[in-house]
Design the sequence.
């Protein structure tokens, strides 16, 4: 009987649906528990700050508070002295900044409240409701690495929207996503309708950081292209949410000639094809003309009803911003020009202490021969 049930298609489908419901319930429960815990932390942080300002207990009382709470609630791991200090730091970071005009504007955009609510101070409650949607470890990473409330709320919003793990969040902060997003030279405002142009601008970064690549000194466009495709997961993470990879060196026939696109993507949020062209040197005006031609070809060959206009991204080692703006001013297809970095820049005093690629290779050769 058991074998008969497990092989039944209807039962299998029902079991799959049931498992999905259980996982969803577990996730909702975890989110609810996280929110309750962080709300407790927020109130605890407020109490700690208040008591330390009103009394002469000083920092030593945190050690005693940690001991007393841990004895009463041994199953809760969040009452160490270090975590109590982090709770105080977390509360102070947001409590000081939520009252600023920038914070009110940003929070109201992320979590809209009425004018009446803002006047009676409920903007703070909206902001607390926002930060309690992400795990405690994410919150600590944000206040440790972000310089201001606008940057912190940017990463909170993106963590909620894209479901970033803590390691992905830290990578995005350390690579400066807040500063890079929406900063490319582009002509989107002139070539795309308002909602599409705004979203497209936010999608393109400048510069892109490909620090997951190990390239030889004299690499060419094909080497760079192959490296990005070989590390596609990291490449897609750097490109951002919504990019679906379609292929490299995509052939397009125009007239009697063959042309090859470096990389082709489809963006699921912009609902359009995205052509990415790679250049190992500085930006040259003729690159924009060639990419404009490729975009026209993709629009003609691939674009279907419901697809928005194809967008081009030109990635160069360096660009002169004014030259790029001039080159795009008379281009009628949407193009963004961004630089890329293969590694994060290091302070000059550290560079001499780092081994060269040749030295590392020699070191491995020696170990292999031992």
Sequence:
């Amino acid at each position: 009987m058991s074998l008969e049930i497990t092989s039944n298609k209807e039962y299998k489908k029902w079991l799959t649906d049931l498992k999905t419901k259980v996982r969803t319930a577990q996730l909702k429960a975890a989110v609810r528990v996280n929110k309750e815990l962080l709300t407790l932390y927020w109130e605890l942080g407020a109490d700690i700050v208040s008591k330390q300002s009103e009394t002469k207990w000083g920092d030593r009382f945190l050690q005693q508070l940690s001991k007393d709470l841990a004895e009463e609630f041994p199953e809760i791991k969040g009452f160490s002295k270090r975590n109590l200090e982090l709770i105080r730091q977390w509360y102070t970071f947001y409590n000081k900044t939520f009252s600023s005009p920038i914070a009110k504007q940003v929070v109201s955009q992320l979590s809209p409240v009425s004018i009446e609510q803002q006047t009676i101070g409920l903007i703070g409650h909206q902001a607390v409701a926002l930060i309690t949607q992400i795990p405690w470890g994410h919150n600590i990473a944000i206040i440790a690495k972000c310089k201001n409330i606008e940057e912190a709320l940017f990463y909170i919003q993106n963590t909620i929207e894209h479901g970033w793990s803590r390691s992905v969040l830290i990578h995005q902060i350390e690579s400066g996503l807040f500063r890079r997003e929406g900063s490319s030279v582009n002509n989107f405002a002139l070539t795309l309708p308002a909602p599409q142009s705004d979203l497209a601008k936010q999608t393109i970064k400048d510069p892109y950081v490909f620090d997951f690549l190990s390239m030889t000194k004299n690499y060419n466009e094909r080497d760079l292209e192959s490296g990005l495709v070989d590390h596609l997961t990291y490449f897609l993470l750097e490109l951002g949410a919504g990019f679906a990879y379609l292929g490299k060196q995509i052939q397009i026939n125009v007239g009697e000639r063959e042309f090859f696109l470096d990389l082709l993507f489809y963006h699921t949020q912009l609902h359009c094809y995205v052509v990415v062209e790679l250049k190992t040197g500085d930006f040259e005006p003729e690159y924009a003309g060639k990419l404009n031609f490729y975009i026209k070809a993709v629009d003609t060959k691939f674009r279907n009803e419901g697809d928005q206009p194809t967008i081009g991204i030109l990635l160069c080692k360096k660009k002169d911003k004014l030259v790029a703006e001039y080159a795009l001013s008379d281009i009628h297809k949407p193009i963004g020009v961004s630089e890329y970095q293969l590694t994060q820049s290091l302070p000059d005093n550290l560079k001499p202490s780092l081994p060269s690629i040749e030295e590392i290779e020699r070191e491995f050769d020696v170990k292999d021969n031992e």
